[in-house]
UniProtKB/TrEMBL annotation:
The lineage of its organism: Bacteria, Pseudomonadati, Bacteroidota, Flavobacteriia, Flavobacteriales. Residues 345-425 form the PDZ domain. Residues 1-19 form the signal peptide. This is Signal protein PDZ. GO terms for biological process: proteolysis. It comes from the Bacteria. PROSITE patterns: ASP_PROT_RETROV, PDZ.
Length: 439
C-alpha cells in the first residue's frame, strides 16, 4: 500500500544539502535503556515522528534522518521542499523531499525542530528484505550529544547522560579506539590483509551495513579481490542496487581484536560513483563484525570503545545457496486452535456415540518469494527461479520461520541439504538443495 502523507508547506527544487537544527532533551535520569530488534545484523529501533510510531534503522553511516516506506500510516510533515538524493547504487539519484520543524522521540529522548529527508522511490523498501517493518533511518543526530552503548548480545541500547563520571565508569573494562568524525560519520583505522600485504585502512564504522567488511580495491593498489570469489548483489542504496564481489581475506584487525579469514565485500565502481568519499577511505566495517562486541560511541571525544561479547568467535558465513528471499505479503492460514477463542468449529461424530469438537483459528502468515538467484550458485543449478514462492523447508511450512531464520539456513556449512517446496505459477515443485561454498 502506498504511503499516506499529509504534507504542509511549499515545494522547490534543490539538491541534497542540509544543516540539521534542534536538540535532544535528555530526561531527568542518568541513563535510559531502549530495547531493539536485531535483524540481519541491523539495529531496528522504535521512533515516534510527529506522534506516529514507526521503526527506524540505526545507522552510523548516514548524516541525516531519512524516511521511506510508510505503508498505510498517515503522517503529517512540515515545511516541505523537493530535492534529489544520491548515494550508493548504480543509478542516478532519486526524487525526494526535505521537511523541517518535526518532532522525534526515541523512548524518553525528545528531539525538536528536526529535518527529515523523505525518499519517494517505492523500490526503497527495507521491510520486504528484512521481514519486519522499517520506515526510516536515523544516524548522526542520535549519537552526537550522548554516550551510546550498543549491547548486541542483549539487544539493548543504553544512552548515558554525558559527564566525566559516567564516561570513566562505563568504559572501565573496554578497549578505547580513536575515531575521526568526517561529514558527521565515524571512521576508524584498521589492519587489513588482502593480497598478501598488511594495509592500514581507514574504514567507516557503519551499523547500517549488515556485512562484515567492505573494501574499495580500486582505491588501493595493496588491496586486491581474493582469487576465490563470486559476483553478488550487495544491497540497495539511494541510487539503486549495489553489486560487487565477495571473498575471504586473510586477516582483519581493530586494535588488538583480530579475525582470521572473514568474508569481505568489494563493491564495483559503478555502485560507488555517486558517493562523495572522505579522503583516504578504503571501505566500511559492518554489523557482522560489530555484533561481536559491546560498543560505546563517544562522539564528543572522538572515541569508540570495544569489549568482546559471546558472539566474538562465531564463524564468518555467507549465503552459500545463492537464494535471496524477500517478504511478499501475507496469506490467511487455517490452523487447529488450542485456545477457546476461535473463528469456526467442526463437530465430528465418533464410533460408539461420542463426539469431538475441532476448533480452528485463521491467522495471517508471511509469504516468502525468491527475489533473485545468484549466477553459478547451487540454487541456479537445480532450477530454482526468481518469483518462486517458498512453501516449505524440510517439510515444515515456510511461514513458521522468520525471514532471518530462513536466511541463516541458507548460510549453512558446505554439504548441508535442504528439501524445498515452491509454488511456480499454478505448479508445486520440490527441489533438493545442497550447499556448496566456493570461498
Amino acid at each position: 500500500m502506498k504511503a499516506l502523507l499529509a504534507i504542509i508547506g511549499f515545494f522547490c527544487c534543490i539538491h541534497f544539502a542540509a544543516a540539521q537544527e534542534g536538540f535532544a532533551a535528555f530526561p531527568n535520569k542518568n541513563k535510559i535503556t531502549i530495547p531493539f530488534q536485531l535483524v540481519n545484523n541491523l539495529i531496528i529501533v522504535p521512533v515516534s515522528v510527529n506522534g506516529v510510531e514507526l521503526n527506524f534503522l540505526l545507522d552510523t553511516g548516514v548524516e541525516e534522518t531519512i524516511l521511506f516506506s510508510l505503508e498505510d500510516k498517515e503522517l503529517q510533515l512540515h515545511d516541505v521542499e523537493s530535492l534529489t538524493l544520491r548515494g550508493l547504487g548504480s543509478q542516478d539519484g532519486v526524487d525526494g523531499l526535505k521537511s523541517k520543524n518535526n518532532r522525534l522521540s526515541i523512548g524518553p529522548l525528545q528531539y525538536s525542530k528536526q529535518e527529515i529527508f523523505i525518499v519517494i522511490d517505492e523500490q526503497m523498501n527495507l521491510s520486504a528484505s528484512l521481514g519486519v517493518p522499517v520506515n526510516g533511518i536515523i544516524g548522526y543526530h542520535f549519537f552526537k550529544s550522548n554516550l551510546v552503548k550498543i549491547n548486541y548480545a542483549q539487544k539493548k541500547l543504553v544512552i548515558y547522560n554525558y559527564n566525566k563520571a559516567n564516561l570513566k565508569k562505563i568504559t572501565k573494562d573496554y578497549t578505547p579506539l580513536d575515531i575521526t568524525l568526517e561529514r558527521k560519520k565515524p571512521y576508524v583505522l584498521s589492519s587489513v590483509t588482502a593480497g598478501g600485504e598488511v594495509v592500514s585502512a581507514k574504514l567507516l564504522l557503519d551499523t547500517g551495513n549488515s556485512d562484515a567488511i567492505w573494501l574499495f580495491d580500486r582505491k588501493s593498489g595493496q588491496i586486491t579481490v581474493p582469487e576465490r570469489h563470486f559476483d553478488d548483489f550487495l544491497g540497495r542504496g539511494f541510487s539503486g542496487p549495489i553489486f560487487g564481489k565477495k571473498g575471504r581475506i586473510s586477516d582483519f584487525a581493530l586494535n588488538r581484536f583480530k579475525f582470521r579469514n572473514p568474508v569481505a565485500s568489494f563493491p564495483d565502481t559503478v555502485s560507488l560513483r555517486n558517493v562523495k568519499m572522505v579522503d583516504n577511505r578504503l571501505g566500511s566495517v559492518g554489523g557482522e563484525v560489530l555484533k561481536r562486541f559491546q560498543i560505546i560511541f563517544d562522539y564528543t571525544n572522538s572515541k569508540f570503545y570495544l569489549k568482546k561479547n559471546a558472539n566474538f568467535d562465531l564463524p564468518f558465513h555467507c549465503n552459500t545457496s545463492g537464494i535471496e528471499l524477500h517478504h511478499a505479503g501475507t496469506k490467511l492460514v487455517q490452523e487447529l486452535s488450542r485456545q477457546n477463542i476461535t473463528t469456526s468449529s467442526v463437530k465430528i461424530e465418533l464410533g460408539g456415540g461420542g463426539e469431538m469438537n475441532l476448533r480452528y483459528k485463521f491467522e495471517l502468515k508471511p509469504v516468502y518469494e525468491i527475489a533473485s538467484i545468484r549466477k553459478g550458485s547451487p540454487a541456479e543449478a537445480i532450477g530454482l527461479q526468481q518469483g518462486d514462492v517458498l512453501l516449505s523447508i524440510n517439510d515444515a511450512q515456510s511461514y513458521r520461520y522468520t525471514l532471518q531464520e530462513i536466511n541463516e539456513l541458507l548460510k549453512s556449512d558446505d554439504g548441508r541439504k535442504l528439501l524445498l517446496e515452491v509454488q511456480r505459477n499454478d505448479k508445486i515443485i520440490k527441489f533438493k538443495l545442497e550447499m556448496k561454498s566456493i570461498l
